[in-house]
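Sharing in case it's useful to others searching the archive later.

Someone asked me privately for the predicted structure of Cytochrome b mRNA-processing protein 4, so I'm posting the question and my answer publicly. Question first, with the sequence:
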Amino acid sequence: MSSPTMMMIKHSVIWGGGIIGLGVLLFKFTVPTDEELLSRMSPEIRAQVEKNRELRQREQELLMEIVKKSSKSNEPIWKTGDLYNPWEGTGGKLIIDKVALEREQADNKQMKELDKLKEQAEALKK
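And my answer, the predicted structure tokens:
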């Protein structure tokens, strides 16, 4: 009734589905969420991750802008000129300047502190 080819296909589908299902289950139950991963980290590493979070977010936003701009042009992505090519330079260059971002964050923090001090000084004058 069933030919050897049909038996082979049936066995392949069953074994393939079982392997894929096992992979999905293992992924679901073994991979931690971002919150679980952060909670398991040491305080020093967690602080470093939190410190660099805004840098990674800004870098991702800039990369998305570059991708949108590149998708509108007919040129290949390597000819757009906005992305850094590691084979042409020293390598390891970030899209966002980390020092400039840290300086901007420090300036914003300092301005907030100055505003608080000004408000306190005005409150004391009254």
